[in-house]
């Protein structure tokens, strides 16, 4: 199973991806987590992306396309993988299509988590409080506004892109976590 979780920051993509890892053994490929790991490791790439991420801007397509392309060849992706936070714009979506095509792979489904945007601020505030080791540098009102702006400009158009490909499904991201997981499990059972 190869799927994308699509939705604005704080929609619950990471939470749902982790449940899918536990329940089905798929690999979670979160570009945000991978970039944060590169920053924590102090790698050259990490140093390059830190300021960009802290502001809530997107890092360059080359970087994220490169890390995803390498990552999906790893053995833990054999059962399937969940793309979480990638693709985030049209160029990345097209690069992904091309990459999968070249690897002889095919996307099974794209699940869009629909949320009420004004509630995302409270969710992110809550996450900032609960994060062990202190809040993420971009979990603050200013960076979140920027992330939402970019989401609308660049990521939301992917809903139409995947709708046109006939692979889009939507779930109510405002439901309880387990109810969202149940909706996702039902979709996966049907594809
Ligand atoms: P969220 O979905 O909660 O906004 P993520 O953890 O997915 O957060 O991403 C955090 C930041 O990492 C983004 O604001 C961006 O700077 C960078 N990032 C993650 N994925 C991508 C991507 N596919 N393209 C460009 N930048 C990305």
From TrEMBL:
Keyword Cytoplasm: yes
Main subcellular localisation: cytoplasm
SUPFAM superfamilies assigned: P-loop containing nucleoside triphosphate hydrolases
E.C. numbers: 2.7.4.3
Leading EC class: transferase
Keyword ATP-binding listed: yes
Protein name per Swiss-Prot or TrEMBL: Adenylate kinase
Organism expressing this protein natively: OCS116 cluster bacterium
Taxonomic lineage: Bacteria, Pseudomonadati, Pseudomonadota, Alphaproteobacteria, OCS116 cluster
Gene this chain is encoded by: adk
